[in-house]
Amino acid sequence: MEATRQKYGRVILHVDCNSFFASCEIARDPSLKDRAVVVAGDPKERKGVVLAANYIAKQRFGIYTTMPLWEAKKRCPHLVILKPDFHLYRDISEKVFQFLKTFTPVLEPASIDEGYLDITDCYSGGSPLGIAEQIQKGLLKTLHIPVSIGIAPNKFLAKMASDMKKPLGITVLRKRDVPKILWPLPVQQMHGVGEKTAKKLNDIGIFTIGELAKAEKVILQNLLGVNGVRLKERANGVDPRPVDPEEGRKWKYIGNSTTLSRNVTEERVLLEVLRALAQSVSQRMKQKRVVSSTIQIMIRYSNFQTITRSKTWENPVQEAEEIFQRAVYLLKRHWNGNPIRLLGITAVDVFDKKEAVKQLDLFHFEEDAKKEALWNTIERLQQKFGDGIIQKGVELFRRQKR
Amino acid sequence: MKITIDREALVQSVQDVMKAVSSRTTIPILTGIKITATSQGVTLTGSDSDISIESFIPTEEEDKVLVEIAETGSIVLQARFFSEIVKKLPEKTIEIEVHPNFLTVIRSGKAEFNLNGLDAEEYPRLPQIEEENVFKIPTDLLKTIIRQTVFAVSTSETRPILTGVNWRIEDEELICTATDSHRLALRKAKIETENHQSHNVVIPGKSLNELSKILDDSNDPVNIVITANQILFKTKRLLFFSRLLDGNYPETSRLIPTDSKTDIIVNAKEFLQAIDRASLLAREGRNNVVKLTTLNDGIIEISSVSPEIGKVTEEIQSESIEGEELKISFSAKYMMDALKALDGTDIKISFTGAMRPFLLRPLHSDSMLQLILPVRTY
C-alpha cells in the first residue's frame, strides 16, 4: 500500500459542505429536513436575495443562490425562509474543521465551508476512498452536515472532483481521467476561471477546458499574465500547490522597487520615487486587505552595493501617506548620500486587517472617538449579515474593477 | 591618602554609587569612582553626568569604628575593577593607600592589589545646591510614589519630555504624573514645604528608578531640593542628584475625563489575575490585547483571541456595574501595570466609551488614578 501511494504521488481530498448555510439551519432544526429551505437577506425586505438553498429547493423548485426572494417565493409558495445566523455557521464550520483534523493535521481551510486534506501519509486510516467515506458519514452523523468529497493527486483536481456529484458525492479524479472527464467541459466550469477570464478566453476561441489545455503558452501569458500559464497547467491536471495549514497566516510581504533612469543624489527626486512606490504598495495591500507594522526600504547605490533597512512601528499601516512617511524616515536615517540607482519599499509581515489593532493615543484619540458611532453601526451590520455586508466605497469599487 | 575601612560598609557604598556609573560615557574619568577621605569619614562618588550619587561612610557609627583615617586625600579608581575587588577581598577590613603617581594599593589580609588611579582633581564637580526651600517625604512613601508612576513613562525618545515624571508642587501637595501617551499614572501626596513653594519639573524616569533601588524601606525623611535644572534627594548617608528634563510637560489634567458612562467596581487583585490569564495567549500573538464585555448581573467577561493559537474567555463577578453596556479592548500589559500600581484594593473603573480613555481609581481614595487608552479593533 505504502509503495503504491508513493508511486502515484500525493492523495488530496477536497471536502465541500453542501448548501452550507441551509444545511446548518436544518442541522439546528431537523423538522425542516423534508421541506424547501432558503437562507435569505431579509425575508421582509422585497429586495432580499437567496443566500443559500437546500437541495429540495434547488432540485424540485429550481431555486438558486442569488435568486431574488420574490421569485423564489413564486416558484415555491410554502418555501421556508430563514434569516442568516452567521454565528451558527461559524460555529459549525469550526466543528467541521476540528473533525477533519482528526484524520490529518495537514488540513487547509479554504473558506467557511470547504477545505483540503493531504492524506498521502495516512496509511493507517485505510484506503483514500475509505477515509472519504468515514469523513462523509462522520460529518453527516455527528453534525448533520452533508458534504461532497473529491479525491485526486492535487488540489485543483480534488476541487473539480468534489463539484461533480452533489449532494453527498465522493468522486475520484485521476490525472489520466483529465482528457476524458475535464476537457469536454466549458472553460468557465473550471475552478479559477471567473466570468471575465472566461470571456477573454472565449474571445480568442477557447471554449472548453481541453482547448485551454492545448492552447499556446505565450498567447495565454499575453492574455492573462502568469495566471494564464497556471490555468493551462491545471487544465492539464498539474497543480503543485501543497496543502498548507498555514496558508493565509504565514509571514508575507508586499513590496515594489524601481530602477531609476539615472544615478540620483537629489533628495527631492528620491522622495518622489518613494511616494510613487508607497502608492503602489498601499494599493496592493488594500486589494489584499492587509496591513503591516514593519516597513523596509531597499537602496542600491550606483556601485551596486545594496542595503535594506527596516523598522517596526507600534501601529500597523495601509495608507500610502503613512507608508511614505515611514519610508522617508528610513531613507533619511540610512542613506549615506551616495548616488542611488534603485529604491524599493516593502511592507514586511503583512496580516489581515481584521487582526490589526490600533493603540489609541491620549493626545489624539478624539480623531478615532468621533467615528465610534459609525464603527458601531458597521459592527452591528456585520454581526447580523456577515462581514461582507458593508465596506468602504473605495474598497468595493476596487474589487469591482478587478 | 591612607585609610583602613570596614569592608561591609565599603561594599554597600560602592554598590550605591555604582548605580550612577556608566561604562558608556563621553567623559572617561566618569568610569571611575571618586574616593575622598576627610577627618569625618570617607565619601564615594559615582556619576554619569545625568545622575550623580554620593555615599558617605562616617568614621564611627553607633560606637562602631568604620574608617580609620591615617592620611586624608582623594583618588579616582576604575569602578568596574574596584567594585569587584572590594566584594571579593577576604578580611573584614580593607586598607587603601595612595602612592605618588596615583598608584593605589588595596590590601586585605594577605591579598594585595595595585591599581592605577586617576587624579581626583580631574573629576567633575558635583552641582552645588543651596539647601534652601527643602521639603521632606518619608522614604517609604517616596518609594511608593515612584513605583506607582514611573512605569508609565515613555521608553521612546520621540517625545523626550515623556521619558520623565512630572512633579508639580502646589499648596502643600505633590502631584506626580507619568504618561507614554497610551496610559497615564497620577499620584498625589500631601507634603510639608518651607514657605509654600511651588514647582513644576520633569525628572527622568531612569533617575527615579535608580533612586528607588538605593533607598531603604524606613520611614526616615528624605530631604528634597529642587533648582532650575537639578533635583537633589538627601538621606542620612546619601546624596542623589539628577538632571531635570528640559521643556514643558504637556497639560494632561484636561485630558482626564470627568464624567463616565459605565462604572465598574471590582477587586483589583482578582481582576489582575483574570487579565493575566486572558493575556497568556494574547502575549504570544501579534498583539497583547484583551477584550472586556459587560454582561448581566454584574458579570464582566474577559476574552482574548489569537488566531494562530487559540482563545480564552473568563467571567468575573464584579461588585457592581452601573450605566451603559460596554465592549472595549485594551492592552493587557497596560492594564496589569495599572492594577499592580493600585495594590490589590477594591477599585472603580470608569469608562466613557470604547474609543475613549478610561480611569482606574481606588474606591475609597482620590490620591491615585491610572488612565488607559483602549485599542481600536478593525
TrEMBL record, chain A:
PROSITE patterns for this protein: UMUC (PS50173)
Cofactor note: Binds 2 magnesium ions per subunit.
EC number: 2.7.7.7
Protein's name according to its UniProt entry: DNA polymerase IV
Endpoints of the signal sequence: none
GO function term, MF aspect, one: magnesium ion binding
Top-level taxon in the UniProt lineage: Bacteria
Reactions catalysed, as given in the entry: DNA(n) + a 2'-deoxyribonucleoside 5'-triphosphate = DNA(n+1) + diphosphate
Cellular compartments annotated: Cytoplasm
Major location category of this protein: cytoplasm
Residues at the catalytic site: E114
Stored InterPro entries: DNA/RNA_pol_sf (IPR043502), DNA_pol_Y-fam_lit_finger_sf (IPR036775), DNA_pol_Y-fam_little_finger (IPR017961), DNA_polymerase-Y (IPR050116), DNApol_IV (IPR022880), PolY_HhH_motif (IPR024728), Rev_trsase/Diguanyl_cyclase (IPR043128), UmuC (IPR001126)
UmuC domain ranges (all copies): 12-194
Gene Ontology CC annotations of this record: cytosol
Subunit structure: Monomer.
Functional note: Poorly processive, error-prone DNA polymerase involved in untargeted mutagenesis. Copies undamaged DNA at stalled replication forks, which arise in vivo from mismatched or misaligned primer ends. These misaligned primers can be extended by PolIV. Exhibits no 3'-5' exonuclease (proofreading) activity. May be involved in translesional synthesis, in conjunction with the beta clamp from PolIII.
Sorted UniProt keywords: Cytoplasm, DNA damage, DNA repair, DNA replication, DNA-binding, DNA-directed DNA polymerase, Magnesium, Metal-binding, Mutator protein, Nucleotidyltransferase, Transferase
Annotated site residues (Substrate discrimination) in this chain: F21
Cofactor(s) for this UniProt protein: Mg(2+)
TrEMBL record, chain B:
Gene3D superfamilies documented for this protein: 3.70.10.10, DNA Polymerase III, subunit A, domain 2
Keyword Repressor: no
Subcellular location: Cytoplasm
Segments forming domain DNA polymerase III beta sliding clamp N-terminal: 1-127
SMART domains in the cross-refs: POL3Bc
Superkingdom, taxonomy of origin: Bacteria
Alphabetized GO MF terms: 3'-5' exonuclease activity; DNA binding; DNA-directed DNA polymerase activity
Biological process according to GO: DNA strand elongation involved in DNA replication
CDD domains: beta_clamp
Record GO cellular component, one term: cytoplasm
Domain DNA polymerase III beta sliding clamp central: start-end pairs: 137-251
Keyword check for DNA-binding: yes
Segments forming domain DNA polymerase III beta sliding clamp C-terminal: 254-376
Keywords carried by this UniProt record: Cytoplasm, DNA replication, DNA-binding, DNA-directed DNA polymerase, Nucleotidyltransferase, Transferase
Pfam family, one: DNA_pol3_beta
Function of the molecule: Confers DNA tethering and processivity to DNA polymerases and other proteins. Acts as a clamp, forming a ring around DNA (a reaction catalyzed by the clamp-loading complex) which diffuses in an ATP-independent manner freely and bidirectionally along dsDNA. Initially characterized for its ability to contact the catalytic subunit of DNA polymerase III (Pol III), a complex, multichain enzyme responsible for most of the replicative synthesis in bacteria; Pol III exhibits 3'-5' exonuclease proofreading activity.
Protein family according to the UniProt entry: Belongs to the beta sliding clamp family.
The protein's assembly and partners: Forms a ring-shaped head-to-tail homodimer around DNA.
NCBIfam families per UniProt: dnan
Name of the protein in its database record: Beta sliding clamp
